[in-house]
Amino acid sequence: MDAIELIQDLTDKTKNLPHRNEEKLDSLIRTAKMRIRKIFGDSSTYLTDLKSISFHPGIYFTGMDKSIYDESWSKGQSKMLNLFKTIEEDLTLDSNKIIKKDSTKLSNKIFIVHGHDEEMKQAAARTVEKIDLKPIILHEQPNKGRTIIEKFEDYSDVNFAIVLLSPDDIAYSKDKPPEDKEFRARQNVIFELGFFVGKLGREHVFILYKEEKNFKIPSDYSGICYTPYDNKGQWRFDLVGELKSCKYNVDANKLIGK
Q1: Is the pLDDT of residue 220 over 60?
Q2: 217-249 residues labelled b (16+ CB within 10 A) or e (exposed)
Q3: pTM exceeds 0.90, yes or no
Q4: What is the DSSP letter of 17?
Q5: What are the start-end ranges of the H helices in the chain?
Q6: What is the rounded CA–CA span in Å between residue 232 and residue 178?
Q7: How many CB atoms lie within 10 A of CB 111?
Q8: pLDDT one-digit tens code per residue, 176-187
């Protein structure tokens, strides 16, 4: 039995305690003390509370009415039930805290937002795998009859995202000549970048960009750090550093020599 079940068992034993059966009462109190010590330790205030509960009158005198003994027994039984109820509520609250803490455990899934640069996409995915995390690339996941946005919403249930900005599109302002063209990331990549920044917070989004002449970095995201995609792979260690700052248990040594 777990701690809550042990206390519930004490509650049941108290409810079924035979009236004025001193032997059963003594056994119940001894069991209760043992279990409270086991759960909360020797210095628990619940032990003091248990000790203060009396099933007998505070004073005795010859010819005392039997009803006084009966009333004292009933009061003691009621106080003991209240004590066990309080202990059970205490344990239930602690149990809920543990469940809540576990529910916030970081997912091992890392969503990778990418454009048309296959090299960047594969490099990011393999790096994530090497540090024992799971890359989520949307087009590699089964459709299951969902629309693109439904599929995206389902698979975006992550705690961290890597956004790859590659020079896939060419654009220029309508009031400027084509010679002023700029390279830009695809629109879906910019949309998903904004989505994850809003959902996860800036610190949980790692933005990796490929350096290219006239490559336009999104201006609305000033203040966010962009990491250049370099051939030496320094960005991989920068990624590990960002993951560590977000409480991921990852080891950069797994990247060495691979």
Answers
A1: no
A2: ebeebeeeeebebeeeeebbebbbebbeebebe
A3: no
A4: P
A5: 3-15, 22-40, 45-52, 66-103, 118-130, 148-155, 187-200, 234-245
A6: 34
A7: 26
A8: 787 778 888 899
